[in-house]
Amino acid sequence: MTDHTVVRCDYEQHGNAILEIFNDAIVHSTALYEYKPRTRQFMQNWFEAKSTGGFPVIGIEDGAGALLAFGSYGTFRAFPAFKYTVEHSVYVHKDHRGRGLGRTVMQELIAAARESDVHAMIGGIDATNSGSIALHEQLGFKHVGTLPQVGFKFGRWLDLAFYQLLLDTPAHPIDG
Of the candidates 126, 136, 134, 131, which has an alpha carbon nearest to the alpha carbon of residue 161? Predict the structure, then answer.
């Protein structure tokens, strides 16, 4: 990979590029189990939720400042005992796939999770997405289950596979 920079994304600078990447994934893939493209208002709310939750949005820009890939994590389930677990996602612009950008974003997300005392990272991946599955396995994620036929898109049933990475953090977890 040549001339790229890892950045923390914000709405003003990266909202449009992230919206474009999300919407391409919605319209052309099963990476997102959604039917309709997202809106700018959705993106504004999404960034606000990330900021409020203290969740990173990490991107990779090329030398000209164009966003090539991004990833983030957020709440896994909204119950207190899940406070050390996050669900992450990573997306690479359609013109830049297969260049190691997803791996770089994932490594940055894992580092950010450790710094934030996260213990478990969960990735929900369409079971036919062999590239994402291979990447997760290479980074130490383990397959922990598949929910058959929980999504329906493009005229077919979709299976959702879950991959988990356990981290050595936090040093002293607490209840409450």
Answer: 126
Residue with tokens 């036919």: 128
Query: Hey, how many other C-beta atoms are within 10 angstroms of the C-beta on 6?
Result: 13
Q: Does the predicted TM-score (pTM) go above 0.90?
A: yes
Q: Answer yes or no: is pLDDT of 1 > 60.
A: no
CA distance 40 to 46: 10
* HSE-up of residue 55 (Cα within 13 Å, Cβ side): 21
The one-letter code for the residue type at 118 is: V
Distance CA 14, CA 166 (A): 30
Q: Could you give the CA distance from residue 76 to residue 20 in angstroms, rounded to a whole number?
A: 25
Mean pLDDT of 32-45: 97
Residue whose structure tokens are 């002293």? 172
Pairing of strands 57-62, 120-126: unpaired
Task: For residue 47, give the 3-state DSSP assignment.
Answer: helix
The Cα 117–Cα 172 span in angstroms is 9
- Distance (Å, rounded) from C-alpha 13 to C-alpha 92? 17
What is the spatial distance between Cα 150 and Cα 18, in angstroms, rounded to a whole number?
26
Q: Which two tokens stand for residue 26?
A: 């919605």
